[in-house]
From TrEMBL:
<dbReference type="InterPro" id="IPR002611">
    <property type="entry name" value="IstB_ATP-bd"/>
</dbReference>
<protein>
    <submittedName>
        <fullName>DNA replication protein DnaC</fullName>
    </submittedName>
</protein>
<dbReference type="GO" id="GO:0005524">
    <property type="term" value="F:ATP binding"/>
</dbReference>
<feature type="domain" description="AAA+ ATPase">
    <location>
        <begin position="181"/>
        <end position="310"/>
    </location>
</feature>
<dbReference type="GO" id="GO:0006260">
    <property type="term" value="P:DNA replication"/>
</dbReference>
<dbReference type="InterPro" id="IPR027417">
    <property type="entry name" value="P-loop_NTPase"/>
</dbReference>
<dbReference type="InterPro" id="IPR003593">
    <property type="entry name" value="AAA+_ATPase"/>
</dbReference>
<dbReference type="Pfam" id="PF01695">
    <property type="entry name" value="IstB_IS21"/>
</dbReference>
Amino acid sequence: MQNKYVMEILKEYERLSEEAKSAQLQRQKEIYHKIPRIKEIDNEISRIGYDIASSIFKGIDVESYIKERRRKITDLKMEKAELLTSFRYPVDYMEVKYICEKCKDTGYVKNEKCSCFKQKLIDKFYQQSNLRDVLKKENFDMFDISLYSSEKYKDELVSPRKNMEEILISCINFSQNFNAISDNLFFYGNSGLGKTFLSNCIAKELLDKGKVVIYQTSSNLIQILRESRFDENISRERIEEINTCDLLIIDDLGTEPNTPYSQSELFNIINTRILQGKKMLISTNFSLEDLMTIYPERITSRILGHFTMFKFYGDDIRIKNSINKRKPRI
Ligand SMILES: [Zn+2]
């Protein structure tokens, strides 16, 4: 199973880098046609490059020769950049544009799998390939704080809007300072108040930074683990990824079947990640009191002890309508 996915992804990389190179050739052709001087410059640069390479064998004052030749290359590159700009092209117009600059769409950096490769594998493993499409529409800029009332709500000390402002700041802080922060996040409260939306915003920010993110509802996660038990080849890999990805998002905690099996799987995931200092974001529609009665103490104590708790509250109708209009739920 793993091999099949790896093969598919490697093929995809091959296609991506071919596309990137042929698009670059196309742009080069266009420029050579419009600005013939640039073709001369490129030829000259490669000739000088060859000169430098062969100068070592010539027995001349190599150092000053190379220095002088390098200066010439810099001059030529300057001239090329100025020409491109004067024709209103971006300076890097003739360079190859890769989707992932880290691995140049090869999937590997120094023989190690690039984070984009790991993410592609995870997307295939967990069928979360639709995640990116959903995330295109969901980011912190889209979060509309005005949907939350600024009136006092029940017994809460601050208004829903003030509460959300604080949650939003913490979420932005979490994703922007991801490497420095050791906290995990726990969102709880009624549905329709933006928990999934904010989880998506965080996932998007981190994916954009090249972090590896697994995003699953808790019922899917338990299902995946259950299936993995029947296939030894994929089980180790899958469980390894759940344990080691940069951020594990467990959405809708409590929707999984409430059995000793799923509770022990949940405990193992949460505990292993805590021990390894790997971050998590968990959300649930349950209240804290409900959680205490549903889950055994060993799970709730891990959550209370290692997560920053954020309570979502307010009148959900306007918020729900607005959020549902914008997106399908993952
Ligand atoms: Zn990459």
